[in-house]
Amino acid sequence: MQLLKERIQKDGKVKEGNVLKVDSFLNHQMDVKLFVELGKEFKERFKDCNINKILTIEASGIGVACIVAQYFEVPVVFAKKNQTKNIAGDTYTSKVESFTHGKVYDIIVSKQFLGPEDKVLIIDDFLANGAALLGLTKLIKDSGASLVGAGIVIEKGFQEGGKIVRESGVRVESLAIVESMDPKTGEIVFRD
Amino acid sequence: MQLLKERIQKDGKVKEGNVLKVDSFLNHQMDVKLFVELGKEFKERFKDCNINKILTIEASGIGVACIVAQYFEVPVVFAKKNQTKNIAGDTYTSKVESFTHGKVYDIIVSKQFLGPEDKVLIIDDFLANGAALLGLTKLIKDSGASLVGAGIVIEKGFQEGGKIVRESGVRVESLAIVESMDPKTGEIVFRD
Question: Does the pLDDT value for residue B85 go beyond 80?
């Protein structure tokens, strides 16, 4: 998606350790006008899939997912990263190892909100090593719901997540795939 | 806001310990069509305030804040609850004691995204003891930004947060204020 790639080139910052900082428009400050364009693009790509629910994961996936959901006219469910006393009763649970935080945590969805009747589109802001996405696909599988695919804003194509998830049979649509990036020059190259 | 009150009556569940579960439409599964109506209402209430930024806090404030932001045509910044290596550099920090989780944590906003040039509207899903809201107002004060007010979806009027924050001089607009609720009967009474 050209608009997104231009924005990443303009405002993205490449840091040591495979970090692409896009916190000025995607995952700390959020440019909702840009999100609207992302929403239209995801709708176009998944328009014939008859989804009835979007699944994402807290925190930075939620904003994009809610804007996208308007174009599909479906609710969003977000997987929580910590058990809270406000989620009583049965949950689906999966373990995720965070690239950003360097630790393992549980993600949780209440069984009330995911089940065999659901056709689910996953929306997330980043795909890197694939841990979060694989965790979400496991929750969906455990629930008996159908997974239509995953819509990702930025995929780090030089990490293995996209390959692993696609080879597992999941349709992944990433709006920008970073092929390589250089923390010394700041150069970002996208996959065609 | 009548539509919201009806939804809380219909789908909210009162639990022991002053817990109002609205996770079927507000803070786990999110009814984006409802959020659109909340967005229009907040826009009506704060239409003359010339805000240029919405501030919220992860995780459950983000969805509402992003939908609301479309009506103001401004970006959203969300305060993060944990330091991550992706927030490098200077941050504004405030301590918050969580009612839900029963622990104290830091909330953080990068100094890049909040400053004296900003006129800020806070949006959050809940106001109970006021800890999160007071934390956010401190971040805004520390940044030199102007706080226009706070738009809250559900206020627990029987807890002290709303009173404390209003007495501190902050304009608080809550779309539904719960005056009392009874875990035995499930009854929910709203303030007029």
Answer: no
CA distances from A116 to A10, A43, A135, A142 (A): 43, 23, 18, 9
Neighbours of A188 (CB within 10 A): 18
Question: Which residue in this structure is represented by tokens 């890049």?
Answer: B112
H/E element holding B124?
A: strand B119-127
Domains of chain B: 2-182 (3.40.50.2020)
pLDDT bracket for residue A97 (50, 70, 90): confident
Residues 103-122 of B with CB under 8 A from A: 109-110, 112-113
CB within 8 Å: A66 and B69: no
pTM: 0.96
Chain A contact for B59 (CB, 8 A cutoff)? yes
* 3-class secondary-structure state, position A108: strand
B78 and A31 within 8 Å at the Cβ level: the answer is no
Residues B25-77: tens digit of each pLDDT: 999 999 999 999 999 999 999 999 999 999 999 999 999 999 999 999 999 99
Beta strands A13-15 and B119-127 are unpaired
Q: Supply the DSSP symbol for A98.
A: -
Supply the ipTM of this predicted assembly. 0.95
Helical residues (DSSP H) of B12-60, grouped into ranges? 32-45
Instruction: Tell me what pLDDT residue A102 has.
Output: 74
A78, two tokens: 């977000």
* B75 CA: distance to closest CA in chain A (Å): 5
What is the overall mean pLDDT for chain A?
94
